[in-house]
Amino acid sequence: MDLNSTKTMDQDAASPSRKAIRHPPPPPQGITELAAAAEASQQKLLSTNSIPTRQQTTEALRSCHAAASTLHAKIKRAEAESRASASRLALLGAERTGSKLPIDAKLQEVVNRVSRAAYTIITNPNIEMKPDFLALYVKIQQQLGRPESLPSVLDLYATKPKPVSKNGEIRYLSQRPNSISKAVEVEVADLALRTAIEAKHLDSALGIIEASYSKKAFKRHKLLKRATPAALAVSSLPFTIYGLSTAYAIYCQNTMDILTATTMCVMGFSGYFITVGSLGLIAKLSYKDHMKRVTWTPGTPLRYRWLREEERAALDAVACAWGFKEEFRHGEETGADWEGLKEYMGYRQMILDRVEFMQGMS
């Protein structure tokens, strides 16, 4: 066998591997049935002109969620195989730009069909937007890695009219978007934001923050849930102090009359609780050790910092996800997206990479 024939055989043996690297592997069999099942549940739910029941809507969304859960493992496997066949330079470029690695077109089409079926269900005018429906929809898109529709659906949660059947007709009642009942749950907002970060979709991440953490309903819900117990405790404090002072004046001393002893005890207890409580409140609201890259602009009122802490933490997570992972390189990021992110935070009384808080600058 001559040298030329040996080279030809080597090239023929290497050609299949090159083709495998160039083209993503074919999708597993049976994925089209998953999309068909999700679309069938959607069509069955929306085939009638009446308002679907809560159970019917839940079953349709769960059908989409089951398909998305099955596709999730297949998507991850396809991305891993595509990542293994891609070059190191292509991987770095995809990580920086947020572009997705190529997977089989058939698998991508099935993902789009399942995502579209869930979106059609949740946005139908006859479907009332409920918290469990929203949570299930976010889980579906998280499994599929499709955060593009999450900002609009989160905003629709507060503004979508409520369908009501009366005298055989369906009427749509407008909702109050700033009411406490329209606040997105923290767990749902966190999952939606994590989905956008994993997909490297900056516009969706900022849109999710706008539609959840930044809403008045979210802040009012936090104020009612967390500030009400503290307000009740503070309002009952004068009665507690007076009761303790009276008990001390009657049972624990015999050098002063009861009125004088009670007055002195009230002054002492009040001074202690007011001083220590004020210092503790200031320390709690001005605590910065949990902040990584996003901090408040000097002069921002403490009450605003407390009310908008979840919004700041979400933007902090976005900055950490899009910036350099190495702490010593923080502040070296460039580009239109990064400059726009810094300007976006500046409008919200926040500073990205405050110099005196960076590593080695204090």
UniProtKB/TrEMBL annotation:
TM ranges: 230-251, 257-283
Q: Region annotation Disordered: residue ranges?
A: 1-29
* Keywords tagged on the record: Membrane, Transmembrane, Transmembrane helix
Report the protein name in the record. Uncharacterized protein
Please spell out the taxonomic lineage of the organism that makes this protein.
Eukaryota, Fungi, Dikarya, Ascomycota, Pezizomycotina
